[in-house]
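Lab notebook, page 48
Experiment: co-folding of the full assembly
Goal: obtain a model of how the components sit together before planning crosslinking
Operator: M.T.
Materials (sequences as entered):
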Amino acid sequence: MAATDTHSAIDAVWRIESPRLIAGLTRMVRDVGVAEELAQDALVAALEQWPESGVPDNPGAWLMATAKHRAIDHFRRNRMLDRKHADIGRDLDARQRTAVADIDEALDDNMGDDLLRLIFISCHPILPTEARAALTLRLLGGLTTTEIARAFLVPEPTIAQRIVRAKRTLSAAQVPFEVPRGDAMAARLASVLEVIYLVFNEGYAATAGEDWMRPALCEDALRLGRVLAELTPAEAEVHGLVALMEIQASRARARINRSGEPILLLDQNRALWDRLLIRRGLAALERAQKAAATPGPYTLQAAIAACHARARTAEETDWPRIAALYDDLARLAPSPVVELNRAVAHGMAFGPAIGLELVDKLLSEPALENYHLLPSVRGDLLVKLNRLAEAQLEFERAASLTRNERERILLCERARACSV
Amino acid sequence: MRFMVMVKATKDSEAGVMPSQKLLEDMGKYNEELVKAGVMLAGEGLQPSSKGARVRFSGNKRTVIDGPFTETKELVAGFWLWQVKSLAEAIEWVKRCPNPMPGESEIEIRQVFEAEDFGHALTPELRAQDERIRAQTSAQEPRP
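Observation: model returned without errors.
Model output:
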């Protein structure tokens, strides 16, 4: 096998094995930073040896065994240090024995729990959201710092620093390597879901240009979500988020034109929607709905997305159902943007006058003050009500607020059309 | 990126010989591993070609040919659809698969086209549709 082939094989093995490797090692050494270093050491050893020896039959076990030796060295080194510092060293032999036992145990199929612990520690609320995302992609997605930097359009040293700081913070705070229980679970899980959805949106919203790395970011988020759903099958919102991401991802091919500009949902060519992802999304939504009596915000959003996914044409969309779901969402997770979407849904379901009434309640909302979609929605409803002079003003205002040149031109055209 | 991973047919699979209990168990475990890793999007086993058919095209003519087909090694006995990072990752996963057949067998890995692979080969209708971007938010995707 040529050296480059071996290198890409090693990359692939790393991608597959590193989360479990790091998770198992973290359980032993109780420090995610040290665990990752040990795993990296094993990777370096593989890079040195495999081009000569070939990729072993069971590369995961090889990496784990190598890391295990490094871990034992690490404990020995610490013991020397401890001795030097005249620290209490009496239980160190015992500790070392325990560590070895731990590693052996880590090799068996207890892995799922460790992986879940690793997800929770990477997404710990003690870390800033950006750091959580970078650390999660690094430790659980198996991405390199370079790949993460490229994905987030941030210089590499920034990401490297973010990760180093995050690991230091976790270590200093002695964050336990555990799956939270009871009341803590909901909040901690929310933090995990937030990170996964942030990664997804970073890929999904970034539609500009030839940036091929960014759809990959959606795939990374989906993969993390699918892994998490297998680890926490009883958590409804995990399935809800997976459903939401699968259904949104199903539209990837239809939602931008060749110049990378967005095509709105109702204008999309539904033949381009990915039926496989829709099917997976609907199945995940069903799991979410079975797991909890009352749906959470992700499940509600997935249910809304599912209404669109089920409609074969834009005209078939079940707007009353979508309006009802937005009502629930607005109660559960109120935000001005949800309110605006709710107004649109009500307008589609029950007529433009109803929609306008809801939109007008948002006019004093400070968060929407410079949001071009507010006047744009209002203009649209006014056109439907044949109040063209007012609509014209709204489109002009929307045009002055948008930062997208293409959209500005279209809004100006709509404004002009009102005066004809 | 996505790969279609195809298990090639053998004399046994074409003869409708069912896999052993052991192989079913091993395959089940392997599939579970693929799902847990978030890799597997879909997968199915296929009946022997004796239960299938082919439609041959020649200009405007269509001829139906009933199975079975003779070139066993070229036939597919089952497939998966995977989402992975690279061909190398797909290869690594395939190497972990239990031998899907008694004796000799082969698994073929093929990359699935993605939207961006088509580049500018969009149809005129699609192009026309692309042009119709309207500043209308009724279609905003749900995003609080």
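Interpretation: Chain B touches chain A through 42 residues (CB under 8 Å).
Next step: discuss with group before ordering constructs.
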